[in-house]
Amino acid sequence: MCFSLQSSQITLLLLLPHFTTLRLSQCLFSPNHGTKTTLCPFVCEPSRALLDEKFKVLVKNAAPGAELTLRSFHQAEKNHHWEAFGHYVCDSSGTLNLCEDLSLGGTYEGVEPMGLLWSLRPVPGSKAGLRVRKTNVEIPMEVTISVYQGHLSESFSEHTAVAAVLVERWYMAPGVRRIPVTEYNLTATLFLPPGPGPFPAVLDLWGGGGNLVEYRASLLASHGFAALALDYLTNKLTVSEGRMMKNDYFEDAYKFLEQHPQIAGSRIAMLGLSFGTSMTLKMAVYSEVMKLRCAVCYSGSHIQPVKGSIEEIMNYFSENQEKTRINENQEIIWHDLLLPIPEDPALKVDMGRVQCPLLLVVGEDDQNWPAYVSAMDIKAMMEKAGNSHLLTLLTYPNAGHLIEPPYTPHTRTSLFRTAQTRHLCMVLWGGQPLGHSRAQEDSWKKTLAFFREHLYGRKNTADV
Ligand SMILES: *[C@@H]1O[C@H](CO)[C@@H](O)[C@H](O)[C@H]1NC(C)=O
């Protein structure tokens, strides 16, 4: 026989009624160190939510003081298995609340309501260098959260969970539209928020691995911004004609957005991570076409031949290959490639010419790019030039290079194929799980607020 929550209790748990279906999982069994069978209703709420939303995990009516393990399991694309778990002790009423109660051990410790997501890691025996990257954003990331008796750390498949719930983490909120774009020969995907618009827009660039990466743009659209994910390194023309795009490729993407009937053409921003930051800073300062309202740059640098095309910038990096370091685990560290910071003004974007608000996000343990050192130089350049009032700088201790949307599992090192050489290598990104997770959560919140302020003109308001 199974317990079910009273409706009054359920009401307390509801967070986002428009986007929520409540799923209760029921206890299969729950032996209580003896003869009595206790019941343990288990709820994760909301069980269907956006990727960047918090959930609440509750266990009720377990045995008082029961030791339980909460475990999450994710089968990623390509069939790789990820897991996280925490060890808990129920209170005297047999209740466990992950928003309040401590994990005493596992893949995370302490009060970490979202630890079951951000500390996900490949199951033991997995091949090295995996990273969770969503390719199909039209279906959610699925995570199964299970409750086990006792404090387990391994061999979960040999134990039977006493309760389990399937959690869906969505990239596209209901009503968000995904539109493949080929105009101007672009390889891109436009995400539009629900409604008629016109919406302000974000041109979204990822880094040196290329490909059309949609999971951030789709989330931005879920928060009210049109967003164009752009493949500028492995796009159709580059591949078919064997040449890299010129900088006007970004201007074409901008023009596409500017002319789109559902986009507010005077309210366009750029967002870049890693090599995408190089491109964003370059276009923000030197493009005659792009009049950006604001720019957000993650984990990147202003160091580059400022007159260079994408290819020339990539070649400049390659010329510095001898500064690559390899650690004792044979992981590649590219941090020093652009160091020391050049004195030659032809080798760094003239940050004194930035005219729009700029948000810089850097991890202090970025092993892949000199993002922190570059941010300090950018700050000094802007102070000297008198435009530092446009700069917001966020730096995070123990955060690495891959600062992604909140609760994305931390990946300290992974297999990476550069768009230019197509070599597959084990790259060290840096960061520690907890510090990195904090950075992802905080920087995303501030990125959305920054876009709301500069694209919608709303300060300190909740989600649009
Ligand atoms: C697209 O690329 C092809 C091949 O390079 C070129 O002939 C054509 O003019 C391009 N179209 C646009 C709209 O730029």
TrEMBL record:
Keyword Signal: yes
Classification via SUPFAM superfamilies: alpha/beta-Hydrolases
Domain Acyl-CoA thioester hydrolase/bile acid-CoA amino acid N-acetyltransferase: 52-183
GO terms of molecular function: fatty acyl-CoA hydrolase activity
Active-site residues (renumbered): 274 (charge relay system), 366 (charge relay system), 401 (charge relay system)
Keywords carried by this UniProt record: Signal
InterPro entries on file: AB_hydrolase_fold (IPR029058), Acyl-CoA_thioEstase_long-chain (IPR016662), BAAT_C (IPR014940), Thio_Ohase/aa_AcTrfase (IPR006862), Thio_Ohase/BAAT_N (IPR042490)
Stretches that traverse the bilayer: none
Claim: Signal is one of the keywords in the record: yes
Residues in the signal sequence: 1-25
Single biological process term from Gene Ontology: acyl-CoA metabolic process
Occurrences of domain BAAT/Acyl-CoA thioester hydrolase C-terminal (ranges): 248-456
Superkingdom of the source species: Eukaryota
Family, similarity comment: Belongs to the C/M/P thioester hydrolase family.
Protein's name according to its UniProt entry: Acyl-CoA thioesterase 19
Organism: Mugilogobius chulae
